[in-house]
Amino acid sequence: MCEASRRWRSGARVPAGRAPEDLPCRERARCGSPWAAPALAAALALGVPQRARAEPPVPLSRLTGQVEIDGVVDEAAWEAIAPVPTIVYWPAFGSAPSEVTEIRVAYDDGHLYLGARLRDSDPSEVRANSLSRDEDAGDDSVGLIVDPFNDDATALSFYTMPTGARVDGTITGDLASGEPDWSWNGHWEAAARRTSDGWSAEMRIPFSTLGFQSETGRVTMGLSVVRWLARQNERHVWPHVPPKWFNAYSKPSKLMDVALTGVVPRRALYITPYALVGYSVSTPPEAARRPVRDIETAVYNAGVDAKYGVTSELTLDLTVNTDFAQVEADDEQINLTRFPLFAPEKRQFFLERAGIFEFKFNLSGDGRLFHSRRIGLAEGEPVAILGGARLAGRVGRWDIGALDMQTARSDALPSENFGVLRLRRQLDDPLSTVGGMLTSRVGLDGRYQLAYGLDSTVHVVADEFLTLKWAQSLRSARPDEAAPDEAEPARPIDSGRAVALWERRRGEGFSYRAELSWAGDDFDPGMGFEPYQGYRSAEVYSSYSWLLDAGSPVAEAWLDTRVQAYQRNSDDLIESALLSPMFGLTLASGDAFEVLSRHRHEAVREPLVLDGGIEVPEGRYLFHRAGAWLTMPAARRLRCDVTLEGGEFYDGHSFSALLSPGWNPSPHFSLGGDYQIEAIRFPARDVALDAHIARVRLKLAFDIHASLSAFLQYSSLTDRTSVNVRLRHHVREGTDLWLVYDERAGGETAHERTLLLKYTHAIVR
């Protein structure tokens, strides 16, 4: 969501197929890095007293009349509410605003409201490209961030654009990751209007969506408002929090405490049945060599999802015959590393409230104790999900997440049951937590995989944090596995995983982290993702950032350095080591530029085979590379992000480039894509590889309810082409009609074409 993270360049992308540690450090640290959870023993040993409130809560105004959510802030009830005093947050804190911002916040017996009049001296240039839910198109926006529990750690974000499109997300761990989780979709209303002097907007958020706690009718919440002026790259906020921390205006611990009286929590029940019909045609790969009949299949299915507020802050989701027909296809990737590639989750059922189930191992990789793509997918192919349940939310100081899913039998796997239990408790210091996770994967054939983890975050002092984690796995023997050697029995510790991290979380000035990590030879989380076993690693990252004054063409400058090493447990071989300094600038216009160098040592004990059949011989390699990337603000109607890197590569050299153009001429049309090239040469061995990936994304939005999106991609490495076209008519929250066409061809797979019609209908009680 560009509005909430523009400063930290969340739009910047790195070529697919790079190792997780190849991502620019500031990208990982500020846009999705796993800082939110950390370790049991230290948390219990280091208690920090709860932060004292400097001021009593500010009474929030109550509406005295009716308000129609039409985007026009013209009711008498609004006139009785005073606007909050906003200040310029970015690009220069406290500078004179370029435009006038009037934002009012109020409540009634059942809802929280926002009304905004957002002046613009050139109304025709207000950016208004979004017509779809959760779409990032570089729009102007206005937002409300609410900490309903007033726990200084969690919050909900609500944004709307000049078209009335909505974006919402959840915040955990006091935004330690630097970015909200935008996968959550709450039930709320918004409307907006273009005006002769800018635009205006209104929001109405039910208390059942906020889920606060109240026994006396008096509630204290954390609250902030934010306006993003895309064309000027300017952000107005209230309260007056300086940008000393990453996205400080969204950090629950920095929000303004407000008091509501005479309100009670609300609960809701949503039942959403679906029906699906379609037709599939599959041409076997051997059809290219001899005549083979197509396999034609009728597709039909039905199921139901339900969401019930067990309490005002704890939600139960039930699903029967779960379907993900409308989910976009995975991106093609090129793997030029020794590690398997990580594929992100795209299915909405698993994305919602995913932060509660998060248990990541470290900042530099994608390892995690629970990865939801293990459920209902085998080698990227779908496995039918018979049903399941999820309980997620908060009770007092406890975050609770429980999940149980049952999959059907497939050609590759037996019917399996997947279970997850996640508990995390906030300590006296609201920024310190302690928790644990238990996962189980049990097949009807008797095989099982179990894992548990303990984690804690300790807020030591000021911006200093300690993270400790321990995890361990247990599994049954595989049918083809030899019995263990009784002379050398397996040690339980070999199936363990440990992480220790000390960090200073700052967005201005000096910040750093020092991380030690260890993985046993037999660690294998059956429901998680661990790209490498049997190693220990150390990483030190330091950064210094300067925020410049108003009037400067440069808004921010930074200098980062990262040192990292991986060592094998079996023979103490240092397999990989990296030194990478980098320097970057963010301009007042929103453009960001970074240059970096990588000095890498790699020890290859066995021949390493990369994608495309490229083989790296045994040996020790020291090679040097340089790179640069440029990102342009998404508010530009025509833009192109560029990532370049080249230099030595093992015993040869390589060059990579990623071009990501985008064009948003109107709210009704957008065109974007990626072109990636990897050119590798090993002259001494007369080996070469040129790999290309092209992706095109086209979107036609007829209005806020109807849209057509197309995703086309091609990989020369696999000679595979895929087309995914989705036509959606959004009637209201939870009620949608989808027409989906999916085609995959090339490589060693069959040529498959599928046309599906799916209808979901939400019943609200």
Fill in the keyword field for this structure.
Immunoglobulin-like; 24-stranded antiparallel barrel; 4% helix; mainly beta; globular; 765 residues
Short account of what is shown:
With 765 residues, the chain is mainly β. 4% of the residues lie in helices and 51% in strands.
What is the CATH first-level class name of the domain at 57-261? Mainly Beta
CATH architecture of the domain at 57-261: Sandwich
Tell me the structural class.
mainly beta
Percent in helix:
under 10%
* CATH topological fold name of the domain at 57-261: Immunoglobulin-like
- Tell me the number of strands: 42
Distance between the termini: 31 Å
Shape summary: globular
Strand content: over 45%
Radius of gyration: 26 Å
Spans where pLDDT lies below 50 across 5 or more residues: 1-53
Mean pLDDT reading: 85
Q: So how many helices?
A: 6
- Largest sheet data: 24 strands, antiparallel, barrel
How would you describe what is shown here?
With 765 residues, the chain is mainly beta. It has a domain at 57-261: Immunoglobulin-like, CATH 2.60.40. It has a 24-stranded antiparallel β-barrel. Strands 1, 3, 6, 7, 8, 11, 12 and 13 form an eight-stranded mixed beta sheet that branches. Strands 2-4-5-10-9 form a five-stranded mixed beta sheet. The chain is globular. The model is unreliable at 1-53 (pLDDT under 50).
Record the SSE blueprint.
Layout: H1 2-5, H2 25-30, H3 40-45, E1 58-59, E2 61-62, H4 76-79, E3 87-90, E4 101-107, E5 111-119, E6 141-147, E7 155-160, E8 166-171, E9 189-195, E10 198-206, H5 207-210, E11 218-229, E12 234-238, E13 256-261, E14 269-283, E15 295-311, E16 314-322, H6 348-351, E17 377-378, E18 381-382, E19 385-395, E20 398-407, E21 416-426, E22 433-443, E23 448-461, E24 464-475, E25 496-504, E26 509-519, E27 535-547, E28 554-568, E29 574-587, E30 592-604, E31 608-609, E32 615-616, E33 619-631, E34 638-649, E35 652-666, E36 669-682, E37 687-701, E38 706-715, E39 720-732, E40 735-746, E41 751-760, E42 763-764
Parallel strand pairs: 1-13, 2-4
Antiparallel strand pairs: 3-12, 4-5, 5-10, 6-7, 6-11, 7-8, 9-10, 11-12, 11-13, 14-15, 14-41, 14-42, 15-16, 16-19, 17-18, 19-20, 20-21, 21-22, 22-23, 23-24, 24-25, 25-26, 26-27, 27-28, 28-29, 29-30, 30-33, 31-32, 33-34, 34-35, 35-36, 36-37, 37-38, 38-39, 39-40, 40-41
